[in-house]
Specification:
Blueprint (H helix, E strand, L loop, with lengths): L3 H6 L5 H55 L5 H19 L14 H11 L8 H19 L1
Helix pairs in contact: 3-5
Keywords: Coiled coil
Length: 146
């Protein structure tokens, strides 16, 4: 490894100390390689997360555009729907000539309960909403009669 002159000039450096330094150096090289691999993995994970974020951002923007493009019900259509609801309620309640009360529903409250139970989770068909909308629909129909 070292010639005679080098061994005499550097008495502190021996073959054993060289091997120890070489082993320490090799260990550091392995640690550095492992760190570089970890950096690459984290970089890949970051890129993947950014790509997913960008895809989600596009989805949210598209949903926002769709929500804005949803046609709002105009007053005339709203009135028509309310008249239909009120007419159906009158049919169920037997409030029309020659139509008997529907036997399944003792009251409007029972009808609301049944709708709420059967259509749980459907938008607009909750008990509280129906309890507000039914009287409103009846009022609109009665206003039309006057």
């Amino acid at each position: 490894m070292f010639d005679e002159i080098e061994r005499d000039a550097h008495s502190a450096i021996s073959a054993d100390s060289y091997r120890a330094l070489k082993a320490a150096h090799d260990a550091k090289v392995q640690q550095l390689a492992a760190a570089h691999e970890r950096i690459r993995e984290l970089h890949d994970a970051k890129n993947s997360a950014e790509a997913e974020r960008d895809a989600l951002r596009v989805m949210v923007e598209n949903l926002g555009k769709q929500a804005k493009s949803v046609v709002q019900v105009d007053d005339r259509s709203e009135t028509s729907y309310q008249h239909m609801v009120a007419a159906l309620l009158d049919c169920i309640a037997g409030n029309l000539p020659n139509i008997e009360k529907h036997p399944s529903f003792e009251s409007e409250a029972k009808l609301i309960d049944k709708i709420d139970d059967f259509y749980r989770g459907y938008r607009g068909l909750s008990k509280s909403n129906l309890s507000r909308k039914f009287p409103e629909a009846k009022r609109r129909l009665r206003e039309q009669d006057t």
